Amino acid sequence: RAYLPSLEFRLPTTDSLHTDIYNALDEAGIEIPFPQRDIHIRSMPEKSNGLAPLESAKPDRPELNDPAIG
Predict the structure, then answer these.
(1) Which of 3, 4, 30, 47 could bridge across to 25 with cysteines, CB 3.0–4.6 Å?
(2) What are the Cα distances from residue 50, in Å, to 18, 53, 54?
């Protein structure tokens, strides 16, 4: 926690604190891992390319599908 005379110093102070902490940990040989998520797809139909067929895509406004309006 840091106390500042004005909020205008918030971002530079936060950046400075984070940089100093990172450098101190780096000098001590301590690594902080970043969050990581691995996604494994178990099965997928052979002919599928991951995209929905065009026929199944329906507009939210059916009147836009009317050629008379078009």
Answers:
(1) 30
(2) 41, 9, 12
pTM value? 0.45
Q: What is the pLDDT of residues 32-69, one digit of tens each?
A: 888 888 888 777 666 666 666 656 555 666 666 666 66
Total domains in the chain come to 1
Establish if 40 belongs to a structural domain. no
Place of tokens 């995209």: 51
CB 52 within 8 A of CB 37: no
- Concatenated DSSP letters of 23-57: HHHHHTT---PPP----------TT--SS--GGG-
- What is the tens place of the pLDDT at every residue in 8-26? 999 999 999 999 999 999 9
Tell the residue number behind the tokens 């891992």, with chain if given: 33
